[in-house]
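tokens incoming
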């Protein structure tokens, strides 16, 4: 169940509700779902949709949702991935309570099920190599060829399967295959392999086993063992459903889970393939699985996304069977909407240039009171130091401004946020003609908070006090990949995906804790980095800009 509220699935047009109500009738609390990740990588935003769906449906009807690791492939799995997945699910706000399961815990029962199939004449040990099986499989329009070992006796199959289990054969020497139909129009039903030999150490079971069940055999068994009522998975498993049903029917389970498919999440301008993500991490092209540019859940958590925004996003996109691509702007909209009412607004200068107020006393510093949020008084107020020399954004000054430029230029008057009106009088330049400082004068009568109505200005700019400003590294992110038709996967790494800027922050931010969020005025929402930020080395990641390009319907 969600830590804060439930997913609002009732009014989303979610077709799964009709199926569940039809299957369970009045006793909807009998629903039992599961989230079954393979511990071979870190979860990404696509998994969040499945997590919210499975836990959300169970919570809505008062049922249960299990967390189960499908750890049937020791070649790619590790305890690191198990721990990261559990952390991600908890962060999203869901609780599996005492229902944590592993496929590896069922290996003995799965072996017994395979033996039962052999005894029923529904499985056989095959000596064909993987290449021979591929060639004999047939095509979509031609039937496959039966294995020469398909009609081995039950006794011989039982003996060979036991010897496979005992480690007498090398990897690939033999497999156990289901005996179904080599002429089936569904290629998955053409005597699929259900056990293979793999002399590998398993992260949980160690070296106890040297044979491992295939996913298509293990998954329906796990669901049946746990009494799952609805096995909700993505559309690529639709063609595998007949094999799923064959397994649970041939083994006469009392509770037969029903597999139902939905369209997976495809997000624009990003890549979510585990293989690609793993390669980026292992080749150190990114800063680990939690690099803020990645769409892994640990990455977007470090980026600053909130669990509330992810759950809201998953609710908003809904559930259907039709594959589609969701605009990344929709995800960004959800995080902005979540952060906007509760995030303090502060001043930070990301591309600094000095502003000198020539008529302000040189040795004077005053403390000005500013609000922490323009619309949320509960966030309180803070004091900021103000003196003769400040930093402002370089883009806030133009010698030759375009039309409708309402910031600093010669003779132009603007308000300094929370402070005074200032009028630009000139600038300093270096030998190359680059502006190094802007000069202005201030009007003491225009101090913010005073009853001043004599004149109005069109522009307000933010600033930080030069003497007390906190230096910081600020990370700005763009899409990690760009389209590339020449690349194997259709995309290439974007060399501009990370831009690091030397910024100045108001002193209030010196005490910011890791993972604390702020809105930097005019720049967007930022978070103190969970890895590298310290009070002596400020590092902030931009979560998202302020601009919304998505408009909800």
């Amino acid at each position: 169940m969600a830590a804060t509220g439930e997913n609002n699935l009732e009014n989303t047009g979610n077709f799964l509700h009709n199926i569940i109500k039809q299957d369970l009738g009045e006793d909807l609390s009998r629903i039992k779902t599961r989230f079954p990740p393979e511990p071979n990588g870190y979860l990404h935003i696509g998994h969040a949709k499945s997590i919210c769906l499975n836990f959300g449906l169970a919570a809505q009807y008062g049922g249960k949702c299990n967390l189960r690791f499908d750890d049937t492939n020791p070649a790619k799995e590790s305890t690191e991935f198990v721990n990261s997945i559990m952390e991600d699910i908890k962060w999203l706000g869901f609780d599996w309570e005492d229902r944590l399961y592993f496929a590896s815990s069922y290996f003995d029962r799965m072996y017994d099920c395979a033996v039962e199939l052999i005894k029923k004449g529904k499985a056989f040990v095959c000596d064909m190599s993987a290449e021979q099986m591929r060639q004999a499989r047939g095509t979509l329009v031609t039937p496959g060829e039966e294995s020469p070992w398909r009609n081995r006796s039950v006794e011989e199959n039982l003996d060979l399967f036991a010897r496979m289990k005992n480690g007498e054969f090398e990897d690939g020497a033999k497999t156990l295959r289901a005996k179904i139909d080599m002429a089936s129009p569904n290629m998955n039903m053409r005597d699929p392999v259900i056990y293979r030999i793999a002399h590998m150490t398993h992260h949980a079971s160690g070296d106890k086993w040297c044979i491992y069940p295939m996913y298509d055999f293990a998954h329906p068994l796990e669901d049946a063992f746990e009494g799952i009522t609805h096995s909700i998975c993505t559309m690529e498993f639709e063609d595998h459903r007949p094999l799923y049903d064959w397994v649970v029917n041939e083994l006469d389970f009392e509770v037969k889970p029903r597999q139902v498919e939905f369209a997976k999440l495809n997000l624009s301008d990003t890549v979510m393939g585990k293989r690609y993500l793993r390669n980026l991490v292992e080749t150190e092209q990114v800063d680990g699985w939690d690099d803020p540019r990645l769409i892994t859940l640990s990455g977007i958590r470090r980026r600053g996304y909130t669990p509330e925004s992810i759950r809201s996003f998953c609710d908003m996109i809904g559930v259907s069977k039709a594959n589609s691509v969701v605009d990344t702007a929709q995800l960004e909209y959800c995080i902005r909407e979540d952060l906007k009412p509760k995030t303090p607004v502060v001043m930070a200068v990301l591309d600094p240039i000095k502003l000198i107020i020539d008529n302000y006393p040189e040795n004077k510093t005053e403390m000005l009171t500013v609000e922490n949020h323009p619309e949320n008084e509960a966030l309180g107020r803070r004091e900021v130091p103000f003196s003769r020399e400040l930093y402002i954004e370089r883009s806030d000054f133009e010698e030759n401004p375009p039309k409708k430029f309402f910031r600093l230029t010669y003779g132009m008057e603007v308000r300094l946020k929370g402070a005074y009106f200032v009028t630009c009088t000139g600038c300093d330049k270096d030998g190359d003609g680059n502006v190094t400082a802007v000069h202005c004068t201030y009007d003491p009568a225009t101090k913010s908070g005073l009853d001043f109505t004599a004149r109005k200005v069109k522009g307000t700019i933010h600033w930080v006090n030069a003497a007390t400003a906190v230096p910081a590294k600020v990370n700005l992110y763009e899409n990690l990949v760009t389209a590339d038709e020449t690349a194997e996967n259709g995309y290439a790494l974007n060399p501009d995906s990370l831009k690091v800027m030397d910024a100045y922050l108001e002193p209030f931010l010196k005490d910011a804790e890791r993972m604390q969020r702020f809105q930097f005025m005019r720049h967007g929402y930022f978070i103190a980095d969970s890895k590298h930020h310290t009070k002596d080395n400020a590092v902030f990641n931009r979560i998202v800009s302020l601009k919304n390009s998505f408009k909800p319907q």
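note: Residues 16-104+216-334 form a domain with the Rossmann fold fold (CATH 3.40.50.620).
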